[in-house]
Amino acid sequence: MEGDTRSKFKFSDFPSLIVDTYKAWDADDPFRLSAVVAYYAVLSLPGLLVIIINLVGSVWGVEIVQGQLTNEISGALGRDAADAIQTMMIETQNNGKSTIATILGIGTLIFGATGVFYHLQLSLNQIWKIKPDTNASIKKMFLDRARSFAFILAIGFLMLVSFLMTTAISVLNNYIRSILPDAIVYIAYAIDIVVSVGIITVLFALIFRYLPDAKIRWKTVWIGSLITSILFVFGKFLLGVYFGEANPGSTYGAAGTIVLILLWVSYSCLILFFGAEFTWVYAKRYGLGIEPSSIAQKVVAKNGKTEV
């Protein structure tokens, strides 16, 4: 049995795990997968932002949340892109519509906002060698969309936690400044990184555990999501430097904002997919396994053929 041959992770295994992860990542054509998710992310962006802003804003205040999101987008993509996205959010929330138009608009927002998670689910299924049942009913499609919407709610909740943590850290920083004024910059930076990694780790853990059509153990989930979050935070810093220095969207004029969003999501997905590959390689090597759920079939490659 698989459990009888299970080996235990050693830190000396880490380099070989990374090498195997890269080979598996490269074999799954991550650039194509990330481009698909980035395309649907652009289509999903208005609905996704509006839902999150209203969800978190109901507790924290819509203007505060919108301002915080604008600052985050500005740091990642630049001020021009942040202003364009802010305008998009305002136009999407325009209330000068009839009741029927409003209902249809809400439905469209929800369907559009879930699109990016739905296609992220398909990509993770491919990376983990999970093939969804081709005979699945329309019911499964709605369940997948509902699950995607649940992730939007989870992001909203994590944003609320992030705002609360930011407030607490601000109070803590003021206290530290009164004791160690010279060290506050380094301490604040370290705390910010730890909090960011922690929150993103939880998000990736939820994605790995519940988004794909797979059964995976929590032990594997936490290891994979921690590695992914560390890579993501480091990658986010590099992307900020790249977009700030190279300004790749400037070449495209009025379409520059869309190009920047496509690039940012695409590069971010490359990191996410590398983390997903690491999770798969880790589970496979140490006998933990990633099995298909009851609504999926596993694709097993054998002797150059694919068996379902």
Q: How would you sum up this structure, described in words?
A:
The structure is a single chain. This protein has helices at residues 14-27, 30-60, 62-77, 79-92, 99-127, 138-179, 184-210, 218-246, 256-285; strands at 130-132, 214-216, 290-292, 296-298, 300-302, 305-307. With 308 residues, it is mainly α. The chain has one domain. The strands form three sheets. The chain has a two-stranded antiparallel ribbon. A hairpin with a 2-residue loop joins β5 and β6 (305-307). The radius of gyration is 21 Å and the shape is globular. Mean pLDDT is 75; it is low at 298-308.
Provide keyphrases for this structure.
308 residues, mainly alpha, two-stranded antiparallel ribbon, two-stranded antiparallel sheet, 9 helices, 6 strands, 75% helix, 6% strand, globular, disordered C terminus
Give the helices and strands, then pairings.
Layout: H1 14-27, H2 30-60, H3 62-77, H4 79-92, H5 99-127, E1 130-132, H6 138-179, H7 184-210, E2 214-216, H8 218-246, H9 256-285, E3 290-292, E4 296-298, E5 300-302, E6 305-307
Antiparallel strand pairs: 1-4, 2-3, 5-6
Name the overall outline.
globular
Lateral arrangement of strands in the main beta sheet: 1-4
Number of helices: 9
- Helix proportion range: over 70%
Distance between the termini: 21 Å
Average pLDDT level = 75
Overall domain count: 1
Number of strands: 6
Major β-sheet profile: 2 strands, antiparallel
Summarize the structure.
By secondary structure, the chain is mainly α. The protein is built from 9 helices and 6 strands; from the N terminus they run αααααβααβααββββ.
